[in-house]
Amino acid sequence: MNVVDEKIVESFRQEGFRNLTKIQKISYPVISRKQNCLLVAPTGSGKTEASMMPIFSLLESERSGNTDFIEDSAIFVLYITPLRALNNDVHRRIIDYAKKRNLDAQIRHGDTTRTAKQKMVKKPPHILITTPESLGIILTQEKFKAFLKHLRWVIIDEVHELIGNERGTHLSVSLERLQNLSSHNLVRIGLSATIGNLKDAANFISGTNRKCSILVDNT
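RESULT FIELD:
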């Protein structure tokens, strides 16, 4: 196990995961190597943590070893989730995990107040949790688009709700626009408790002509 992987496992333990779940064990080596992947595992198996803990560790390593690390005016992670899931305790935990690491995570959706949105434009969060629809709106705003230059990771939750419908088509376009805006090769991570065609879902996550590892806990 290399140094980065050891830090990731320790990050899980610090949050109470004494024994990693199956999806966490098989996914963190892939995510730590910045590869696109689709995580499919039952509800309650810690998929969100499986995606976020490696990212937190990578950000911490980058920040500690790089004096040019951009602290402000940059969004590093986008967590995209359907509106109905925004009140899920999982997303409140992401905000708490971020705070412990001196990172800022915030939620933006259609009901976010105008004042809160203006604050984000002045000082964007490092991690933005949003919906596919709100992402589409963000991509029309020149000031907000500038914050996405340093975007590194995009996590798409509840993938099964987006495949094969209009929302998914719009999100696919948004993902390509994000790649054009960012100066980094975006790492895309999809999460789902259930999925029909795994290959189609992986292609949806990664986009055309990009590889995407499929990681499944079918226990």
